[in-house]
Amino acid sequence: MIEFPNAKINLGLNVIEKRTDGYHNIESFFYPVFDVFDVLEIVKSNELNFTSSGYSIPGEPKNNLCLRAYQLLKNEFSLAPVSIHLHKSIPIGAGLGGGSSDAAFTLKLLNKIFELKLSDSELIEYARKLGSDCAFFIKNSPVYAFEKGDEFESVALDLSNYDIKIEYPNIHIGTAEAYAGVTPKQSVTSVKEAIHLPISEWRNVLKNDFEDSIFPNHPQIKSVKEKFYSEGALYASMTGSGSAVFGIFKK
């Protein structure tokens, strides 16, 4: 069985405060992008196996989020071994949520293959154990995200009449580097409020807090954002903790 885990972009990202558990409370708007995706194949097998192609995945294969998702369900259900192949097309360390998407789609595929009959709500609870934004990809629809980025409020937003261009400057930004330069603070304008304004006004009110520290260290990323605006983007921003940048254009 094959699925296509898609990317997401962040429309605004405010780091509000550091939590006692070491994580940060944020607020952002997650929007799925379906034309940027990985390819995930899972089939029943005689032994558990994971392989990958495309972008090289750092770390030991045994620690991959897809295998962690399998083990999470196997702890509670009698799952037969599977063979998992992941073709990575979503850049890694780009802020596009590729790894989280792969994990969430693994849960969804296993739910189908083994007929576990888990509801979306139940899958979301499992996904939360794998990563802060994994849960988003269960329903895969636009949401206002808050707390650790794993609490959601559905908000109607349709950008299908616009072109979304994404450029990856081939720079890997680690989560530790991203948060090291951020000073948590309450936002002047909430993402939840800003998202309802005309897109032409987003440039002035919809901010990504990570840009302030990442742009000085990686001017190539800033230049991509500036290029999109010079090409007529209504709104452009780095997504997540970087390094991919997107621009929203009129069709």
Compact overview of the structure:
The chain has 251 residues and is an alpha+beta fold.
Descriptors:
251 residues; alpha+beta; Ribosomal Protein S5, domain 2; Alpha-Beta Plaits; four-stranded antiparallel sheet; 9 helices; 30% helix; globular
Mind describing the biggest β-sheet? 4 strands, mixed
Q: Kindly state the percentage of residues in helix.
A: 25-40%
Strand order of the largest sheet: 1-4-6-5
Assigned CATH class of the largest domain: Alpha Beta
The total domain count is: 2
Strand % is: 25-35%
Tally of individual helices: 9
Stretches where pLDDT falls below 50 for ≥5 residues?
Answer: none
Number of strands: 11
Please tell me how large the radius of gyration is: 18 Å
How far the N terminus sits from the C terminus, by CA atoms, comes to 35 Å
CATH architecture grouping of the largest domain:
2-Layer Sandwich
Sheet/helix structural class: alpha+beta
CATH topology of the largest domain: Ribosomal Protein S5, domain 2
What is the overall silhouette? globular
What is the overall pLDDT average?
Answer: 95
Report on the architecture of this protein:
With 251 residues, the chain is α+β, with helices and mostly antiparallel strands. The chain has two domains: 2-153, Ribosomal Protein S5, domain 2, CATH 3.30.230.10; 161-250, Alpha-Beta Plaits (2-Layer Sandwich). It has nine helices and eleven strands. It has helices at residues 65-74, 98-113, 120-128, 136-139, 175-180, 191-194, 199-205, 211-217, 219-230; strands at residues 2-3, 6-18, 24-37, 39-44, 49-54, 82-88, 143-146, 151-154, 162-167, 235-238, 245-250. The strands form three sheets. A four-stranded mixed β-sheet has the order 1-4-6-5, covered by helices on one side. It has a four-stranded antiparallel β-sheet with strand order 2-3-7-8. Strands 9-11-10 form a three-stranded antiparallel β-sheet. The longest helix is centred in the middle third of the chain and has 16 residues, at 98-113. The chain is globular.
